[in-house]
Amino acid sequence: xxxxxxxxxxxxxxxxxxxxxxxxxxxxxxxxxxxxxxxxxxxxxxxxxxxxxxxxxxxxxxxxxxxxxxxxxxxxxxxxxxxxxxxxxxxxxxxxxxxxxxxxxxxxxxxxxxxxxxxxxxxxxxxxxxxxxxxxxxxxxxxxxxxxxxxxxxxxxxxxxxxxxxxxxxxxxxxxxxxxxxxxxxxxxxxxxxxxxxxxxxxxxxxxxxxxxxxxxxxxxxxxxxxxxxxxxxxxxxxxxxxxxxxxxxxxxxxxxxxxxxxxxxxxxxxxxxxxxxxxxxxxxxxxxxxxxxxxxxxxxxxxxxx
Length: 307
Known about the structure:
This protein folds into 3 domains: about 5-75 and about 115-165, no CATH class; about 75-115, no CATH class; about 170-305, no CATH class. It has 9 helices and 12 strands. The chain has helices spanning about 20-25, 75-95, 100-115, 145-155, 170-180, 215-225, 255-260, 270-295, 300-305, and strands at about 5-10, 40-45, 55-60, 60-75, 120-130, 135-140, 160-165, 190-195, 205-210, 225-235, 240-245, 250-255. Its main location: cytoplasm. GO terms for molecular function: double-stranded DNA binding.
């Protein structure tokens, strides 16, 4: 349940559904496994998994939801091989060429034939709503994955008025200046990883790992015109992460101090431990998001007025 990535969105209007109302709505779109001819299925499941039945988990003004996606695995190489065999048979037995439309029909037939026997891969996508702060935080490594969940949430409850959080200052300019000066913002420390990009049309990229980010070598690349597009940071001595030029947070790591907070009370069962983890994680992440937007000049709220 501990989030590894953050895609952060701002509600343009207050989220006014109660946890009970949201749970009832999500249940109408409960996840159903793939049928024999389904390529993919998407639906809501209880965040507590087998340890709960509610479709939301709520505590201290934070509301967690969980979507499950199931995909049939049909390697393109397998499909193409079978289509190729059918084409060879047609050419040999009927003495004619196979056109583009017929090739596509053969591909559709092969896919239909293989679907019932295909392996199935499932994944869970967690998100939580910080009601008082007006934020939606999705545990997704890309905006595309996050938008998939948000789109399905809109389909389920009718309206989810959110937009990505945007900072007042341009992130790549700010991160570049931090490294060039050798000074991280207050309460933050540099990690040991960054990504530098060349703004020219060629778009060269240098990825630095396990490096001293204030070294003369990295500074020389920046002075040569490259900018920082991703930067490893540590906040408050407890959370390590990478932030990119879109304010997406990745590779979250929670230190021992935070883990100890979640384990201060002996949980009687898995549900109680989940509740403790959720309470600690949400408070820490909301504080991190606030601190991160502050060091990028604060959140730009102008766009909210135009939505």
